[in-house]
Write a structure and sequence with these properties.
Layout (H helix, E strand, L loop, with lengths): L1 H19 L3 E6 L4 E4 L1 H7 L18 H14 L3 E10 L2 E12 L8 E8 L1 H49 L6
Antiparallel strand pairs: 1-2, 1-5, 3-4, 4-5
C-alpha cells in the first residue's frame, strides 16, 4: 500500500512537471499519432484535446513534409534531431519554434515512439530582427555623419574663399 502511494505521488509529481514546463512536449507513437501533449504544446499549436490525431494534422501550413521526414529519420535511426528554427502558420498568425525530436522507448505501453520538444521563440526572433534593423540604422547614421563631415570640410573652404573674395573685391584687389 505504501509502495503504491509512493508511486502515485511520484506519478503526480512527474505529471505536474510535464504539465507546468514552459516548453511544449508532444509524445507520438510509431505511427506518428499523438499520445499526449502538455498545455504549452497546446498553446503553440492553438489546439486542445488532440490525443489520437496524427502529428501532421497539428499543422496548418506546408511544413508537414519536413516534420514527417524528421520524425521518420529519428524513428529509423534512433538519433535525436534538432530543428533550430521552424516557421508555423496558424491562420494569419506565424510562430517560430525551436524543436528537438528524440526517440522514446515504451511510451506508455505503445511501443516505440518519439518525444517532440517545442519552444516558442517568436518573441526572441522578433527582437533579434529589431536588433539587426537597429544596427543597420546605426551604421547608416554613422556613414551619413561621416559623409556630412567630409562635405562640410570642403564647404568650409569654399565659404572661406568666398568671404575672402568678397573682401578683396571690396578693396579692388583683383589679382588674387
Amino acid at each position: 500500500s505504501r509502495l503504491y502511494e509512493r508511486i502515485l505521488r511520484l506519478k503526480r509529481f512527474n505529471e505536474n512537471i510535464v504539465t507546468n514546463t514552459p516548453v511544449g512536449l508532444v509524445v507520438v507513437n510509431g505511427e506518428f499519432s499523438v499520445i499526449t501533449m502538455n498545455a504549452s504544446a497546446e498553446r503553440i499549436f492553438k489546439k486542445t484535446g488532440q490525443v489520437g490525431v496524427t502529428f501532421a494534422s497539428l499543422f496548418d501550413n506546408n511544413n508537414v513534409e519536413r516534420w514527417e521526414q524528421s520524425l521518420k529519420n529519428v524513428l529509423a535511426t534512433g538519433v535525436s534531431e534538432n530543428l533550430p528554427r521552424c516557421y508555423l502558420t496558424f491562420g494569419d498568425e506565424e510562430k517560430v519554434v525551436s524543436s528537438k525530436i528524440s526517440p522514446l522507448e515504451d511510451a506508455d505501453q505503445h511501443g516505440r515512439g518519439l518525444i517532440v520538444v517545442l519552444e516558442d521563440i517568436t518573441e526572441k526572433t522578433i527582437l533579434e530582427n529589431y536588433v539587426t534593423i537597429s544596427e543597420k540604422l546605426i551604421a547608416k547614421g554613422e556613414m551619413a555623419a561621416s559623409i556630412g563631415h567630409e562635405l562640410n570640410n570642403f564647404l568650409a573652404i569654399i565659404s572661406n574663399n568666398a568671404e575672402l573674395l568678397q573682401i578683396r573685391v571690396n578693396k579692388n584687389e583683383y589679382d588674387k
